[in-house]
Amino acid sequence: MKKLIILFCLASLALMTGCGGGKQKYDWCNYSDTYYGVAKNDCTETQTKHLAELERIMQVATEKNLEVPPGIYAEYGFLLFKSGKAANSLQWFAKEKAQYPESGVFMDMLTRAAQRQIDKDKQTASQPAAEVPTTEAQPAQETAPAQGQTQS
Amino acid sequence: MRKLIPFLLLFCIAMTGCAKTVTKQECFPGMYAEQPKSILVLPPMNETTAADAKAYYTTTIAEPLSYNGFYVFPIPVVTEIMQHEGLYDTELLYGMPIAKFKEQFGADSVLYTKIKEWDLSYYVIGGTLTVGFDCELQSTTTNAVLWQYKGRVVVDLSGGSSDLIGSIISTAINAAISDYVTYARVANYRTFGTMPVGPRNERYMQDGQDQLFDQRPPAEKAAPAGSATPVSDGTTAQ
Exposed, middle or buried: residue B157 (CB in 10 Å: 0-12, 13-18, 19+)? Predict the structure, then answer.
């Protein structure tokens, strides 16, 4: 019953805003729930769950032939980056930028940060300790995404 | 099913109610003039005593905005980067010059939110979640307020089953934390129904004549009055 009511709310809302005519554009799966889990209690368990949910969202999008919702690729890449896989993160930032050009400035910033980390890892050649990127603008490195591709 | 009937009736009343209507274009001309493509959501200012309200809001907001046709910057990533910059304090973020968000993230607009009310009330059967938002979408190029919403959303938490015991049990189940995520999402969907849609929605630039309840001046006056504020659920009046 509860589900029915919620469904009814959403359905009538969709009808009223008029966007109900088209097909579903995205499927966010249980994104809110797993993200809430992390927000409430940031530990390995909730993080793993959220990462798995991001993977599921991408998989479901392929299966149902939907678009991957905005920010999912970027968030996935960022989580890889934080876990020390800077080289792997680059392709996800590139994917986000390709699907959502609106994210360009932000993805370039993340790509530069990942690139710096990769360079640093090479130099030290020790265990990577992911550095969270800063928002400091670095206009000198506008070609960073291209570099990223060659590095990965 | 019978439980649905009062709900439906209420809904009809809300829709046909005596509220004055206005078109989206009249209400939010800035949205049509500037045509923002992307929204950067800042963490909300929580003015309630419900500590969880902030997490509920941030974890459920991206979805309705994306369906509205906007690019929504990944909230966890943005939040973490800002925290790394020492911007833990929401007040500090809200005081930042808005042009910064364009420069560093490439955002067309920024969403500022104050959570005014987050109340759970339980009755013998079921209960309600009342959420009061005060939201403003501001342009990063002109600083203009493109869209705003002030009002309350009431979400019914009742299980809706016809027997009393069943209802009490379902209310207890509803109290499980994860369920509120669902209700928070419903509240957000209603709140953002008044926003003119963005370029990734098929009705982009075609919703200017959609009718809204004109909640601007009365809501602005009534908002600080707290519990005396009439319920306005922000749904479009088509």
Answer: buried
